[in-house]
Amino acid sequence: MKSCLLFLLCSFNLIVFGQAGKQQTDHPDFTTEDIIFTSTKVNLAGTVYRPKHSYASVVLVHGSGKETRMEEMAVLLAKNGITVLTYDKRGVGKSGGVYVGPEVGTNNIDPSNLDVLASDADAASNALLKLLPRKHGPLGLMGFSQAGWIIPLAAAKNKMVSYMVLFSGPVVTTLEQLRFQFYTEGKSRFWDTHTETEAREHVRSDPDKYQFAPTDPNSTLADLSIRGLWLFGGKDVQIPVGLSIEHLNELKAQGKSYDYQLFPELGHNTGFSKSAEPVSAAIQWIKNINNLKKRK
Predict the structure, then answer these.
(1) How far is residue 208's CA from residue 17's CA, in Å, rounded to a whole number?
(2) Cys-Cys with 176: which of 22, 103, 172, 278 at CB 3.0–4.6 Å?
(3) What is the 3-state secondary structure (H, E, C) of 84-146?
(4) How far apart are CA 73 and CA 185, in angstroms?
(5) Would residue 255 be called left, alpha or beta, if left means φ above 0 and alpha means ψ between -120 and 50 degrees?
(6) What is the pLDDT of residues 149-202, one digit of tens each?
(7) Which InterPro entries match (predicted)?
(8) Whole-Å CA distances, 144 to 59, 67, 148, 269, 273
(9) How far apart are CA 95 and CA 236, in angstroms?
């Protein structure tokens, strides 16, 4: 998944199901079903991956860019007993609507677009709930990069969402992330020549190149009462990880059930790196969530 650049790259909705796709029975661990659901009067196309024995469910939420269904991640999660809905981003693949992003000269982290994408994730959650058995494990949202702003908004819209997993999700405002990204210029060796103190000062004081209302995930996260896990790479040059962790610690001090793990040698794409550690950590964390639910 190419979600490195967040900006420069990077209401309840009635569910309408189209014809289901063919069930795949050739895999020993899961079957798949294509579905269509609606969000803000737009049809979105996705695929549900059903393990034979499921202990939790999750909706995958895109990062920036023109992203279709995240099939490889869905397969990996389904093999580990997690039911998955992954869908084509609006305006991409078989999904309707208009794609918003720099490639077409639009601002994909404008508050209005983030809210629309959050509505899509909310509608996807309702679509998946319609297909789950009456007694099912916890339902969550899992996302990447830009989804760090989208998922809290979506979770606030849907009270059935009980957990969220964010790979390299920023816990800073959209404008703060841009200041950091412009400072690093995406250079992989940025941290060889710069300090955390220098980066924080730049994020704090650098004038904004764009003028639009910022989205602050901290305000939404402070109001949520669900569990969350963030997985960060210590060499990330797209989001300010140190500042994001500081904000999570502040939220944890307020009693929020938010966890994080830092992988010092990884960069921004923690969910799609050569290292299997972040994804394995996420799967184990979701299993623990399910065990906690069973004990209640």
Answers:
(1) 43
(2) 172
(3) EEEECCCCCCCCCCCCCCHHHCCCCCCHHHHHHHHHHHHHHHHHHHHHCCCCCCCEEEEEECC
(4) 28
(5) left
(6) 999 999 999 999 999 999 999 999 999 999 999 999 999 999 999 999 999 999
(7) AB_hydrolase_Est10 (IPR053145), AB_hydrolase_fold (IPR029058), Hydrolase_4 (IPR022742)
(8) 12, 11, 7, 8, 12
(9) 31
Structure token pair of residue 1: 């998944």
Question: 30-295 sits in which CATH class?
Answer: alpha beta
Per-residue confidence (pLDDT) for residue 26, from 0 to 100: 55
Q: What are the backbone angles phi and psi of residue 197, rounded to the nearest 5°?
A: -60, -45
Beta sheet of 227-233, edge-to-edge order: 30-39, 42-51, 82-87, 56-61, 139-144, 161-167, 227-233, 258-263
Token pair of 292 as six digits: 């906690």
Give the span between the Cα atoms of 250 and 162, in whole angstroms: 21
Q: So where are the chain's domains?
A: 30-295
Over residues 228-236, mean pLDDT: 98
Residue 102's pLDDT is 85
Question: Cα(233)–Cα(231) distance, rounded to whole angstroms?
Answer: 7
What per-residue confidence (pLDDT) applies to 27? 80
Query: Please, how many CA atoms are within 13 Å of residue 211, restricted to the half-sphere of its CB?
Result: 0
| Cα 197 versus chain centre, distance | 28
CA–CA dist 196, 243 (Å, integer): 9
List of residues 6+ apart from 109 with CB closer than 8 A: 6, 7, 10, 64, 146, 149, 174, 177, 178, 215
Note the pLDDT of residue 20: 42
Contact 166, 143 (CB under 8 A): yes
**pLDDT value of residue 273:** 76
Which residue is listed with tokens 């000269």?
105
Percentage with pLDDT > 70 across the chain: 90
